[in-house]
UniProtKB/TrEMBL annotation:
<protein>
    <submittedName>
        <fullName>YtoQ family protein</fullName>
    </submittedName>
</protein>
<dbReference type="Pfam" id="PF11071">
    <property type="entry name" value="Nuc_deoxyri_tr3"/>
</dbReference>
<dbReference type="InterPro" id="IPR019884">
    <property type="entry name" value="YtoQ_family_protein"/>
</dbReference>
Length: 149
């Protein structure tokens, strides 16, 4: 039973790479948003034309990025959303809500200090992991039934 997993959220650390590396050998396909911060911010104006107002600059980028995000989440069996330590990821919270609304299996990856702020997001998840390795262990268990050794 192959799994399609969408990796959403924080783009400033290597958590995605850790999950992808740890899942080698499992029947998993990964997708994610564009993780090049500058490209993600500027895609709308680079493709659709410049905007003098920062609001519209960001709005165009958000709309273009949403095409990829919606496709990735809709096609996923599991959505993993990472909330990082340094930045507020409002888009990650939106992705978690969108995935929950679509009935996707949702795994949240966050540090304990975010527990209170993310209590509603966590309540919609099927698992709240603290480390990328725990996400890999969940994927392995779902696919093979085996527990971490």
């Amino acid at each position: 039973m192959p799994l399609n997993v969408y990796l959403s959220g924080e783009i400033h650390t290597d958590w995605r790479e850790k999950i992808i590396e740890g899942a080698k050998g499992l029947d998993v396909t990964f997708a994610s948003p564009v993780t090049d911060h500058a490209a993600s911010d500027d895609c709308g104006v680079a493709i659709l034309g410049a905007e003098p107002d920062k609001y519209w600059h960001d709005h165009k980028g958000a709309m273009v990025n949403a095409i990829r995000t919606r496709k990735g989440i809709a096609g996923a069996d599991i959505v993993v959303v990472r909330f990082g330590e340094k930045y507020r990821q409002w888009n990650a919270a939106f992705d978690a809500g969108y995935a929950a609304a679509l009935g996707k299996s949702l795994i949240i990856l966050q540090q304990p200090e975010h527990d209170h702020a993310l209590k509603e997001v966590d309540a919609a998840a099927l698992a709240v992991a603290r480390e990328p390795a725990q996400v890999v262990d969940i994927l392995r268990y779902v696919l093979t039934g085996s527990l971490p050794g």
